[in-house]
Amino acid sequence: MKNVTDSFVSLVHWPFAGSFGFNTDILATNPINLSVVLGVLIFFGKGVLSDLLDNRKLRILNTIRNSEELQGGAIERLEKARARLRKAEMEADQFRVNGYSEIEREKLNLINSTYKTLEQLENYKNETIHFEQQRAINQVRQRVFQQALQGALGTLNSCLNKELHLRTISANIGMFGTMKEITD
């Protein structure tokens, strides 16, 4: 810094023309120079700076306006989305309630259907058992009848002679005759 001030000091030794000269006192000359420069800048740069600031202000206002419009649109879309969400939640709840009631109804239908099927199967089983019992009883009756018939035939064959046989046939024919007369 000393070299810079020395170069200005060396300019002081030049011969002066009239009252023109350099003031080497930095403290006295610096505020004056700054005020002159600032005055010139303000005088000439005032319009440019004003235009720049106005343009910047307009851009900021446009950006704020656009942001507010976007915010309004976003709020509107958000409200619509919330309304759709509420509607979807209500429909989901309705489907859930309907689904639960449908499940309960189907469950009851299935239980009733199963009960009816079991009842039918029980009836078929009882009918089958009754049929098999009747068939077994009929088979036993037929065997008993066949055995009784064979035993009676064997007894008759061993006890009956021709004369007794003819009398029995005649008595039976007589009974048939009387029965026929009664029914006519």
UniProtKB/TrEMBL annotation:
Q: Which InterPro entries match?
A: ATP_synth_b/b'su_bac/chlpt
Annotated compartments: Membrane; Plastid, Chloroplast thylakoid membrane
Q: Which UniProt keywords apply?
A: ATP synthesis, CF(0), Chloroplast, Coiled coil, Hydrogen ion transport, Ion transport, Membrane, Plastid, Thylakoid, Transmembrane, Transmembrane helix, Transport
GO CC, any one term:
proton-transporting ATP synthase complex
Which stretches are annotated as coiled coil? 71-98
How would you describe this protein's topology in the membrane? Single-pass membrane protein
Question: Can you provide one Gene Ontology molecular function annotated for this UniProt record?
Answer: proton-transporting ATP synthase activity, rotational mechanism
- What residue intervals traverse the membrane? 32-49
Outline the subunit composition.
Answer: F-type ATPases have 2 components, F(1) - the catalytic core - and F(0) - the membrane proton channel. F(1) has five subunits: alpha(3), beta(3), gamma(1), delta(1), epsilon(1). F(0) has four main subunits: a(1), b(1), b'(1) and c(10-14). The alpha and beta chains form an alternating ring which encloses part of the gamma chain. F(1) is attached to F(0) by a central stalk formed by the gamma and epsilon chains, while a peripheral stalk is formed by the delta, b and b' chains.
Q: Which family does it belong to?
A: Belongs to the ATPase B chain family.
Which HAMAP family does the entry link to? ATP_synth_b_bprime (MF_01398)
Q: Name the chain's protein.
A: ATP synthase subunit b, chloroplastic
Q: Which organism is it from?
A: Cipadessa cinerascens
Taxonomic classification, please? Answer: Eukaryota, Viridiplantae, Streptophyta, Embryophyta, Tracheophyta
